[in-house]
Structures are given as structure tokens and as C-alpha cells.
Amino acid sequence: MENIVDEIKSRCNIVDVIGQAVSLKKTGGNYKGLCPFHNEKTPSFVVSETKQMFYCFGCNASGDVFEFVKRYYNLDFTSTLEKLAEQYGVSTDGAYYKSPNYSSSNKVELFETNRKAAKFFYKTFSDSENPGALYMRSRGIEEGILKKFGIGYAAYEWDSLSNHFAETESDIKPLIALGLAAESKGKIYDKFRNRVMFPIINPGGKVIGFGGRALDESVPKYLNSPESPVFLKKNNLFGLNLTRQDISKENRAILVEGYMDVISLYQHGVRNVCASLGTAFTENQARLLKRYTLNVIVSYDADQAGQAAAIRGAEILYKEGLNGKVLKIPSDKDPDDFIRKNGKQEFMNLVEKAVPYAAYRIETIKDRHDLAETEDKVAFVKEAVAFLKTLSPAHAEMYIKAISKDTKISESAIALEYSGNKTANTIGDVYHKSDSDKNRDWPDILEKNLIKLCILSRDYFERTKPYERAFGSRYGYEIFKSVESGYSVGDEIDLKKLADGLDEECEGVLNDTLESVFLAGKEEKVFADCVARIRLADLKNRENEIVLKISMADEVDNSEQIDSFTRELIEVQMEIQKIKI
User: Fold this and answer.
1) What would the CATH number be for the domain defined by 240-357?
2) pLDDT tens readout for residues 48-101
3) Residue 190, SS3?
4) Which pairs from 537-540 meet CB under 8 Å and 24+ separation?
5) Which architecture characterizes domain 2-87 according to CATH?
6) Residue ranges of the alpha helices (H) in 12-159?
7) CATH code assigned to 423-581
8) pTM value > 0.70
């Protein structure tokens, strides 16, 4: 589903879509018109082509192209997706892979189709001058490395791969099933166009999918194959087919974000490297690495988003029993940029200075506080102790000593804070609430805690109902709605009936939740923590909305709205600071 949404956005321009319903006039860098969502005589509806967003300064309606179509035509998300997909020639087949013709028993044919596609892309890349080859050479990648990774090029034409398969193969259906091609109005077209193609190869040497890097302004910049019986992003790592022996030999893996990071580090002699596949690092990927080493250095981009992702990845490594460290690239660079400019030795110096996960987390918490101020010092201790509760007692004790040294607060006081407020579970990341996020299958720990509480008593269910938006995963949402149905006929949940009403995978998630979540008499504490995190997510979402509105208001020289938004932004940020988790 994510790939389909991205593909639609890459093909449509929000100005064109909204222009079909609203008369727009170019004003500076934006377009303005009368808002279709409320009555007005003076245009206050702004569409930003650069941001692909709209905002009304009269009624505060805002969003992307999906939100506009959804609101204007009064559609749900699925209908919105289908409408835009049809309009822009994007196939919605395979949004979820359920094809009866390509079950797991037919993997051989799918592997072979991927192999032939990889060979075609490589031949296109190698046989003649093309934008893909020029781009990779401009990045300094040598011919031998390009060949080793099987780098290819998907031509600009809409049907180069499709025509090749139509001429050489008896059946083009596997190509469509793998998301390499699609069908619309009786015509077959390529899904990857004018992109450098990175074949994704499993440790067994089979091509399971592709990543494509756009060579023009197409979005998304990186497009992955959709999931299929031979490709699950959460179960695979890019480059591991080439580097797993080096990882075992070094007894250490360097985990990076991007395809180019892997290739560039490999070329410079750092061979014990691999990358997640355009998604957040997963438990399954951690278990895959565990086959080769227990030591992992997370080297993500140096920007704020990259460092946040690095912390999440290191947390997963810790929970899966691996020794995770975080490496921070200086000057907001990524590993590829850094090693090309500074060389292998400088990069390896950073590797040796990588900070253990727990120490890094505590350092990031400390950076948010001024330890010269008493109240800030206490706040730091409370926040740091909340994190220590997610660690083993031995790890926690070790860092209690370090926190005591930093703050001049006695170890006994910090230990008392630790033991006196320990909760039964770590509450995970804030929820995701957009429609497309419903396609995240597995619930995070926040959802699992809420599910366990809802099943525990009707009281917790009723108190959770106002926060239904927190169930951002498909299975979490389905379980919550099934619990709601259970309470519609009684005051207690019959677990057998609850399980019987779920499909097999969803039932498995329910059983996992019931077995793995232990509230241990801390129900109120856990519930309060969940609510605080949901509230924090709401505020952060609002903060992002306001920042967007300020930027759009600035472009139309709307000083009154800027002042109003700025005041609201300050208030929201103050509320964020008040929430202690």
C-alpha cells in the first residue's frame, strides 16, 4: 500500500488535482483560490506546489492531495486511493499480496522472474551510456563494485522491461505480481522508470526485490519492490549476501540506512556492512544479524531523523540480545559522504568511538537539560531513570553511578527513584494515526498495553475509547474493534470468542500480546503512561502542522496569521515540555 501511495504522489501534482475543483491563481510561489470547505468572498485557500500541500487560512483545512480528494468528494481513504489510482494510471492490484496464482509454493517462478529482471536492468546499465551509469560514476563508484552489486538501470520509457518480457517470456503475470510492472486499462507499463536499480539479494543468492533511486524529480526518491512471497522487507538486509562472511570474520556489523552507504563503504574497504530496506530496523532484521555477530554499530545519517532512527534501531538490538552502539557522523553527513571525503581510516576512527546504546540514550537526555539548574537536574534524573527501567538491573546499576557523577545526586537517591517507580513494561514509540498507517500490520508496545488493559476490564476499555486513534496498526485496530464488539454483549471479554472472531494472523498477535505483556499490578501507571504518550503525539503532530502553516503564511506575506501561529506554536511547545515520560 505504501508503494501505491508513493507512486500516485509521484505522478500527480496537487495544483492540477485541486485545480479541477477550485479556480486557482498564481500568487508568488503559491496558488490561491476560494476555499471549497467554507463560504468566503476573499481567497484564503493556498496551495503550495513545492510542498504539495494545501492550507486554508479561513477554516484551517489542510493536508496533502489525498486529504483534499477525501474531503472534497467525501470519500474514505480506500475510495480516495482508488479514485486517484484510476485517474493517474496506477494499479492497486497487490496492495496486499493475496494472489491465489502465486502462493508460497510458486516461489521458484518468482525468483526466476526477479533474476531475469535484474539481468535486464544490468544489461541496460552496462551496454550503453545512460543516466544511471553517469550518476553512479559521478558518485565515484568503480566498475568492479557496480558489477559486484549488480547495479542496473530502469530506462525512462514506460514499457522497456514489460516489452522485453513480452518478447522473451511466455507469461508476464509474475512480473506484475512482483510489482515490477502493472496493468491499467488493458495496457502493461513498468513501475520503475529512469531509476538506478539496486537488486536486493538474500543470503542464499536469490534476487528477491529491487530498490530504485530516481534520477529526476520523481517521488519517492527511493522506491522499493512491494512485498511478495519472496520479499518481506522486515526479514532482509541489503548487501548481506556479499558481506555476511566479513561480518562474521570481524565479529561486528555496521548497519547503515541506504544502498549507497553500503556500496560506498564496501568500495572503501569497510566490508562488514549492511542496510535496512528503506524502513525502520525490525526485530526480524536484528535476529538475522544475530546469526553472524552479536555486535552491531548503527551508523545512520547525522541529521535529527537519522539519529532518532539510530536510537530506535539500537533499542531493538538491545531487546534482541545484541550489543548495539551508535555512531554519529559529524557535520550532518551520511556514511557515504563522510568516507568519500575523509577515507576509510577516519571512518574507522568513528567506529571505534561509537557509544553503547544505553550511554547514548542517556547523553541525548542530558543534552536536553541544563544541569547547572536544580529543577532541570531533577528533571534529567527522572527522565534518565525512566529509561533505565527498560534495561536489565545490572545495566541500570552501572548507569546509576554515571548519572550520580554527572548530577552530584547520591547513588542511593537515584536508586530509590529507580526502584520506587518501576513500571512493568516499556511503552514504545508514539502512535501513528494517518489512514495509510493502518497498513502497518503489527502493533507496537503502546497498542499492546492498551489491548491488554481493555481486555482486563470494561473500565479500561471505556477510558481507552477516546484514544482509538492510537491503534495505528492493522492488527491492533482489528483486535480493539473486536474487543469493542465483545463488550457490546457483556461486561467481560470471552477470550475464546474474541480469538474465534479474528483471522489466523490477528489471533497470533492477540496471543502474543496476552503472553508478553505483564502489567504486574501497575495497571494505572501503564495506562497513564500510554495516555501521556498519545497526548505527546497529538502535540507533536500539531507542532508540525503549525510549522507548515507558518511557512505557507510567510510565503503569502500574511503577518497576522504568522503572529497567531507563532503564539500557538509557543503554547504547544510549552505543553510538550510539561509531559514527562
Assistant:
1) 3.40.1360.10
2) 887 888 988 888 888 899 999 988 887 777 778 888 888 888 776 555 444 434
3) strand
4) 537/430, 537/431, 537/433, 537/470, 539/572, 539/575, 539/576, 539/579, 540/430, 540/576
5) Alpha-Beta Complex (3.90)
6) 14-19, 65-72, 77-87, 107-127, 131-138, 143-149
7) 1.10.860
8) no
